[in-house]
Structure formats: structure tokens, C-alpha cells
Design goal:
With 214 residues, this protein is mostly beta strands. It is built from 1 helix and 15 strands, in the order H-E-E-E-E-E-E-E-E-E-E-E-E-E-E-E. Strands 8-7-6-5-4-3-2-1-15-14-13-12-11 form a 13-stranded antiparallel β-sheet. Strands 9-10 form a two-stranded antiparallel sheet.
Length: 214
């Protein structure tokens, strides 16, 4: 899979959750417009719902890159996840990367987290995290699960420093981080209260994929 597909991967949502009477529910939603360099190519939506100690996440991405009105690349991705604290409990991801259909799922059972992406399931440690951009705790992990491919990858995270970023036309104080793993090169920004603000990814050919909140 090329670097553009990896860059286009990572995140999104549109979760439908119904609270039982009297139960406590909190939800957060991110609506990102996605650009390749300065060209708008689509949307990536995220929503996280916390209810009774369980966190449910669903992401939905839809990108289309055209050259002279001719479709050159199409990417569609959905992923639903369930978490207990900072441990992924299960997930189900479906991706169409320019006609290549990929389905990956996984579930914690016993003392392992089992990922299914081919004929042979792969057992990982019991408590793992994916690229959970909405939860900055994921930046403290030495390895992360890529739900699009099912790979459990070594990552390196560097805190770059503090800066102002423009969010919905307003300057916001943020901390900038860089996350790298073989052909993944991400930059992320978080507010003073740990809210995810922005993402950039280096794609094939050095082009930049940029997520901006709308």
C-alpha cells in the first residue's frame, strides 16, 4: 500500500448511540475538511461517545482527488471502535482505496487482542491502542494498531513545542507533536485542554494532507 493511502487513512466518525434512561452520556464530534496541499479533496468525520464507562467511536472518511475534472484517486473508510479506558476492546474497519477493498476487524478475548485481516488471525497484547487522535494518551504508546491494515507498528513521537494555530479563523494556543513510523509522518496539534485541533500528513511525493476543523 502506498504512502498516500496510509496518509489518507487514519480517523473519523458518525456514531449513533442511544442512552438508556438515567445513564450518563458525553459525546464529542470533529468535522474535518481535508486538503491535499491547497486542494480540497473531502471530509473526515469523528464522534466519540462515552457512556457508563464504555467509549464508542466511529469514523467516516470520503476523499476524491481529481486532475482536470478526471478522478485520479478515491478513498472511502469507515471504522467503529469500542474502548474500555485506554484499551481497545474491538473494532471493525472497511476501506476502499482506489478500488482495493480492505476489511480488518479485531476483538479482545482472554489475554490477547486478536486481529483478523487475512486467513490467519494475529494475536497482540491484551491492552493496545490504535491511532486514537481524539485521545492524546495515544501519543505515549511505543506501538499502535493501524486499523486500516491490521499492522501493529512501532512509532516515535516528538513534542515540537507551543505555537498558535488558526482554528475556524481564530488563533488558538496549541502544542505540536510529530509522529513517525516507517512511511507514516504525521503532525498533530492539541489545545491547552487536550482537545485535538488539527492534523497534517506527508503523502507520496512530499505532498501534504491537511485536516482543518469546520
Amino acid at each position: 500500500m502506498n504512502r498516500t493511502a496510509y496518509g489518507l487513512v487514519m480517523i473519523g466518525l458518525l456514531l449513533l448511540a442511544y442512552a438508556a434512561p438515567g445513564s450518563a452520556q458525553e459525546s464529542s464530534r470533529w468535522d474535518f475538511t481535508v486538503y491535499l496541499n491547497d486542494k480540497r479533496i473531502g471530509k473526515h468525520l469523528f464522534e466519540v461517545v462515552d457512556q457508563d464507562g464504555v467509549t464508542r467511536v466511529q469514523s467516516e472518511a470520503n476523499f476524491k482527488y481529481t486532475i482536470l475534472l478526471i478522478p485520479a484517486y478515491r478513498y472511502e473508510h469507515t471504522n467503529t471502535e469500542q474502548w474500555s479506558g485506554n484499551c481497545l476492546v474491538r473494532f471493525d474497519a472497511n476501506t476502499n482505496a482506489n478500488g482495493e477493498n480492505i476489511r480488518v476487524s479485531g476483538e479482545r478475548a482472554g489475554h490477547a487482542f486478536t486481529v483478523k485481516s487475512g486467513e490467519t488471525p494475529v494475536n497482540l497484547p491484551e491492552c493496545i491502542m490504535s491511532f486514537a487522535y481524539w485521545n492524546p494518551d495515544f501519543l505515549e504508546q511505543p506501538r499502535l494498531l493501524n486499523p486500516q491494515t491490521g499492522e501493529y507498528v512501532d512509532v516515535d513521537v516528538e513534542e515540537i513545542g507551543r505555537e498558535l494555530v488558526e482554528i475556524r479563523g481564530e488563533p488558538v494556543a496549541a502544542t505540536r507533536f510529530r509522529l513517525t513510523a516507517y512511511d507514516i509522518d504525521l503532525t498533530l496539534w492539541y489545545s491547552n485542554d487536550d482537545q485535538w485541533l488539527r492534523l497534517e500528513s506527508v503523502a507520496e511525493g512530499g505532498r501534504i494532507i491537511r485536516y482543518e476543523l469546520t
